[in-house]
Amino acid sequence: MYSLVSASLLGCDLADLSSEIKSIEQAGADWLHCDVMDGAFVNNISFGTPVLKCIKKAASVPLDTHLMINDPIRYIDDYAQLGSDNITFHVEAAGDPQSVIDRIHSHGISAGISLKPATPVSAVKPFLESVDLVLVMTVDPGFGGQKFMPDTLEKISEIRYLLDSMGKKDVRIEVDGGINGTTVKYCREAGADVMVSGSYIFGAQDRTAAVKSLKV
Ligand code: DX5
Ligand code: ZN
Fold this sequence. Notes:
The protein has eight helices and eight strands, in the order βαβαβαβαββαβαβαα. It has helices spanning about 15-25, 50-60, 75-80, 95-105, 155-165, 185-190, 200, 205-215; strands at about 5-10, 30-35, 65-70, 85-90, 110-115, 135, 170-175, 195. The longest helix is centred in the last third of the chain and has 13 residues, at about 155-165. It binds D-xylitol-5-phosphate and zinc ion.
């Protein structure tokens, strides 16, 4: 499958959100990645529904919502109703992951499941049959601008192998954290096809070239 770039807005100038959105869309970003953090599941607080509503108004490309929050089922309806096109939640944060997936699907949108670097593939395996996307964290979630963890590549390959052997070739694998023009190649080789990037693309002099360098 051709690869997509999901631009993490955590890496942009949040005081200038609508022009940052236009700029990164013009640079070729396929999706807008919105990192929602609750200060409990991760050690940081980012933004929530009021900000995502504004992002949705300004956006022309799909909204890729990444919920780094405990007990995500509480907020699925809110993030779906404001116009998320995909909602990804963390397997470590959900008591009953299947019911979260079903709740996301009840809104007719794509459901993603994510795992932290320390979480084994076996934690998401039972849900591969019903998700549309698997987000493999390539850094510990919580902050932008961290260094890519190469140990996570093996998990990408393993998940790609499992999905392919289940006949789920259309389920995408997204990678998030420390993605740049170099690390993206390892991820692509391992089987990822949605590349999240914040600091690398928003910090680039030439954003178009930076986004293009991720479409390997
Ligand atoms: C980290 C977030 C990421 C982050 C990526 O917890 O999930 O989406 O913004 O930022 P970079 O690309 O700078 O590593
Ligand atoms: Zn993210």
